## 1
Amino acid sequence: MYNEVVAAPREILAKNVLVKSGVTDYSVNCYVGCMHGCVYCYARFMRRFTGHEEPWGRFLDVRINAPEVLAREVRSKKPGRVFVSSVCDGWQPIEKRYKLTRECVRTLIEAGFHAGILTKSKLVTRDFDILKGYDNCDVGFTLTTMDESLRFRIEPGASPTWERIAALEEACNRGIKAWAFLGPFMPGLSDTDESLDALISAISRLPLARIYADKLNPRPGVWNSIVPFIKRYRPELLDTYRRLFFDPEDYRAYCSDLGFRLRLTAEVHGVGEKLKVVF
């Protein structure tokens, strides 16, 4: 799946970078598209705005003027909290070459905005030098499973989970406010009691500010990505996924049970007060 041919990155110019967000005050995305190729990604709805015919995960637009545009915008907009990034991963592999997200984060911090980072990439450790010593920034890592075989199948382009946890520990050791985002969990795969226990146990020793947890988001487009994956690896789960995507009552019951098990597991590992289930 991950070895399929992808389109060459396309360099584009952005008219604006600091945009209003439904999660925080603003969001910043230096890329359109994401090479992590996560099977559950809700952001694939962005494809219809890009003009690309390639599937989500097989194209990437690089907003090469993002730092310059942002530098102008922060002078005219009221400081607030900024989600970096909301519909892509700002530290996906190509960021190593372009360094766009790094420069945007630097601009946000120096202008008095709060940069809230969420990533699945150890590359963000490169930028800990510009985060250290500031209280208007934090870094979070998405963690879905401790099973590396499953992790590679559902997040083929992202850093292994153990590398993300090591990066979280490094952030804590450097005095950078750090947090974890658990999920989205895939029913029958990464949401078993054993899987939840392994994941929460692995981070329970870290001095994280907060632990968030989320379920699989049945947004339009996700179903079309999930179906071929389940048919290939776990065809016996297809009916389960169909019910959860299209039967609201089953979905609500599933979410309630998952939330209960997450809270129970967090309590067992002594981090119950840090966990916030966001569904």
Note: Confidence is low (pLDDT under 50) at residues 1-5.
## 2
Amino acid sequence: MVCQEKSFTGANSIDKKGPMQMDVFNFHHESTPPLAAKLRPKTLADFFGQVKIRPQLEKLITHPRHVIFWGPPGTGKTTLAYILADQIGGEFHVFSAVTSGIPELKRLIQEMLDQKREFGKKSILFIDEIHRFNKSQQDALLPYLENGDFLFIGATTEYPHTSLNKALISRVSLIELKQLGPNDLISILERGMEDLGRPELKDYLEDLAKLSNGDARFALNQLSRLVAFTSTELINKDQIIKDIFEHARQYDKNANRHYDVISAFIKSIRGSDPQGALLWLAVMLDGGEDPEFIARRLMILASEDVGLANSQALQVTTNAHYVVKQIGMPEARITLSHASVFMALSPKSNSVYMGINEALSFVKENPTLEVPGHLSSVSPEKKNYKYPHSFPQNWTQQRYLPEGVDEKFYKPQTNGSEKALMDQYVALTKKRP
């Protein structure tokens, strides 16, 4: 079964009335397509990696449904869209969310509806980089997906639950693609090496697979770059690898990598590991992460994870945030390092974090809480309020919770300086009514 393919990018569209060609982005027939496009698999049998989702992919062929593939670059999202379209059959429309907007999308959808009504043609719409659509653009798809006017396939590198509308997500299946493993990449690179007719590149395949961040397209692009070197030049392997990967590290501030790295940074500090904290801090800075974003996360950590065990952490991180704003990079890296290591080495307590969460939950789960009369600013009973500073040690017995409320929201811990605070708290609570 074959499909007809139509690529739509704004005002221009391209018709191919024969079996689907995998080098669809090569508009000049006389030129050689990129290696990644040339080797694009045409069937699931030729598709490397993603073993865990194979059953889902096979079901999509036998029982087609709307689907969005999400995952890092070069894992096969676009390739799977072409494979599914070819296996399912029908007219395949490719739409770029990067270069086109709602007017172009509506024209394309109307064209598909007309073809369906007049000729009974089954259409498949593939939207790459679907996360580039704003809310209104995504909403434009909803009625057509609901009615099944065409089969929809989307692809995104971003986490769908934060980049896509809930209404859109509810109408599609989400399938996550993982980074390809080294063995899968080596197999793909071996095919590329054979196609290039350069068996002497074999010594490079393991390094290419290791340094390509699980991205098959990127790995093949780097393999293609090696063709420019002679067999004699290829002997200088270490220098060549260093040159082609000098700027190859991946860090997308708006995608999954951003969230994964900041998560690793936070968890390293929470786990009192300064080595991990510095490593992930370096990864973020190297990737161009906003240093003020990092400083803000440190301020949150100061109360959430260090808390009363070392209240100085809040002062250190607040000062760090100020310094970062004032001096910027590259000097701000030193201040961020200072705050990160200080936080990692500090004793930890999440008592204030847990305390406010439990108090908020209690408030939400109960009717409006009445302020006791002696604590009120308007009640006649306010005259019964006891001003603590009028008593020895600035304290006197007095109830501050509403009647009937005896929950203990703050649960003191014994780490760091919180122990002294806890001892004082325990001494006082023994006297409270």
Note: The longest strand covers residues 3-9.
